[in-house]
Specification:
Order of helices and strands: HHHHHHHHHHHHHHH
Strand content: under 5%
Radius of gyration: 24 Å
Structural class: mainly alpha
Number of strands: 0
Number of domains: 2
Distance between the termini: 78 Å
Helix content: 55-70%
Largest sheet: none
């Protein structure tokens, strides 16, 4: 009877985790990096039925009892309890088979909590204090663990939509351009286009639209200081150049404009070249970096004058 009640409670907690994910996804702000991170985990759980058991193996830190076979720090029963409790998840391991017990715990967590678990998995101090592999530097094992986790996450997605693990680990510098850089102009239309481009980037399947919107931002940026594009660009270059010459910045504007005109970004005639996923992502951040730099410099020089 007690076992039946326990199973019933565990099933209710798994159901609650699913509902939490649904509510989180509907109510959270598209502009926050955490929503992107959590959405990656939600999708990975949907695609891979073994998501939780594989994550449990990473937390255990061994493969079939062999500590040296895993780059992740080995965790005993008490260390597993500490692992969860230091991120305020009040679970206590009491001698059950570690990986199966962890798997059941993970299935009862919503994906926002799982994000905390994954970040906790890459806590540097755990790698530095892991003395079970004294012949392998902790930095090497940390890098190996990142690579193994990246391959695991890639396997949880269709090949056309690979996951960039650096988002989850907070290692992607590009992410700061999306979420941490607060840049605005006095042109509200430009601001709206820029926000739309960023939001589109974080949504599955919208990368091409995100790049198209960002190229619209680039073209409008040329007329922020003067409605005539040619003179507007010259005024902009004079305003924003600091250590990089106006000529070099002008070359970047011209090159991005050329790419936009010869590839399927803003124009879709049959003579326009297609771009791959990796090329679109590269161009998105290349253009975004230029836009952010110019808007920040315009604001700085305006404040100084």
């Amino acid at each position: 009877m007690a076992t039946d009640i326990t199973l019933h409670i565990e099933n209710l907690e798994k159901l609650r985790a699913l509902l939490d994910d649904s509510v989180y996804f509907e109510n959270s702000d598209d502009s926050h990096q955490e929503k992107l991170e959590v959405s990656k985990i939600i999708e990975a759980r949907k695609v891979s039925p073994s998501f939780e058991i594989q994550l449990a193996k990473f937390i255990c830190g061994d493969i079939q009892g062999v500590k040296e076979a895993s780059p992740f720090p080995y965790r005993s029963s008490s260390q597993i309890t500490e692992f969860f409790q230091r991120i305020y998840l009040p679970f206590q391991h009491n001698g059950e088979t570690r990986r199966f017990w962890i798997e059941e715990i993970l299935k009862r967590l919503n994906s926002a909590d799982l994000l905390r678990v994954i970040k906790n998995l890459f806590r540097l101090e755990d790698f530095q204090k892991d003395f079970d592999q004294p012949n392998v530097p902790w930095e090497v094992r940390f890098n190996q663990a990142q690579e193994e986790f990246r391959r695991f996450m890639d396997s949880c997605k269709p090949s056309r939509d690979r996951i960039d693990i650096s988002y989850i680990l907070g290692l992607n510098i590009n992410a700061s351009l999306l979420f941490d850089e607060e840049v605005h102009s006095e042109d509200e239309v430009l601001n709206e286009l820029l926000e739309e481009a960023k939001k589109r980037y974080t949504r599955q399947g919208d990368l091409h639209i995100a790049v198209e919107k960002l190229w619209d931002v680039l073209e409008r940026l040329k007329t922020v200081l003067d409605s005539k594009k040619k003179s507007g660009v010259q005024l902009l270059l004079q305003r924003v150049n600091e250590n990089i010459s106006a000529e070099k910045l002008d070359e970047e504007f011209q090159e991005l404009s050329r790419i936009g005109n010869t590839h399927r970004i803003r124009h879709h005639e049959t003579d326009k070249s297609e771009l791959s996923f990796e090329e679109l992502r590269y161009l998105f951040f290349r253009c975004l970096a230029l836009v952010n730099y110019c808007l920040k410099r315009v604001e700085q020089t305006k404040s100084a004058s």
